[in-house]
């Protein structure tokens, strides 16, 4: 379990800790006292697992406090609460980064467990959970009317590609329902939207830093923004950037899931062929057939 130290933090501080673990590529940047606490309470948790634990608890905490309501429109969401809309996005990131061994178990323990799932199955499980979180995030920001028209169109296209109720979809791989030219064009447009959102995010971050250096009061305006409106605009552009990254990851995951399904089938085939019971059954079958032929 993640350190109880986060229980005494504000939701914003808790989110920052979890995101920091992910942004450091799973390398914890805790100070010495935190490391000492981790060594006693979280000996078997990796930084990615800690982040997942923290984010999951934060989800529950936000739900119980009513910080975000499913019926809210964007204008009704407090600026201080906007960052929490991205919790599912960060959970999706975390599950994609999770190593291919059982959550909460050490790699060595799993290597010694003959009943543990194969890396392909575990990776498929992680990807499936990640895409579920990405979809949850996209659904949330879509309901808040936060996405531009082009992003919404691509999101709905990806939903159609994953529609398992479509009889035609069952007979064809997900990534082949668009031709290569369409997929390439979709990627180009997404890259352009992502770059534009990233540039806006950097611009507003720079303005916040300038305000801080100049020591401006929160109500003072700079380039048409006071502190509140600038912070809100920065959060919104960040959430839009997250949406583009979700779309990118979902499309990539579709292709990886196809390859994993093939790998899992091959692994199962090898396991069956190497099972001594299968060889024994074949011998008995041949002996039985020979005996029947001698009658």
Descriptive overview:
- There is one protein chain.
- The protein contains 11 helices and no strands.
- It has helices spanning 11-23, 32-41, 47-65, 87-97, 107-111, 119-143, 149-161, 167-170, 180-214, 227-274, 276-294.
- α1 (11-23) packs parallel to α4 (87-97), α6 packs antiparallel against α10 and α7 (149-161) packs parallel to α10.
- The longest helix has 48 residues, at 227-274.
- It is globular, with a radius of gyration of 25 Å.
- The model is unreliable at 28-40 and 106-115 (pLDDT under 50).
What key phrases describe this protein's structure?
single chain, 295 residues, mainly alpha
Low-confidence stretches: 28-40, 106-115
Q: SSE order in H/E notation?
A: HHHHHHHHHHH
> How far apart are the termini?
67 Å
CA gyration radius, whole angstroms: 25 Å
Shape: globular
**Proportion of beta-strand residues:** under 5%
Average pLDDT: 80
Helix and strand composition category: mainly alpha
- Biggest sheet layout: none
The count of strands amounts to: 0
Count of discrete alpha- or pi-helical segments spanning 4 or more residues: 11
Helix amount, in percent?
A: 55-70%
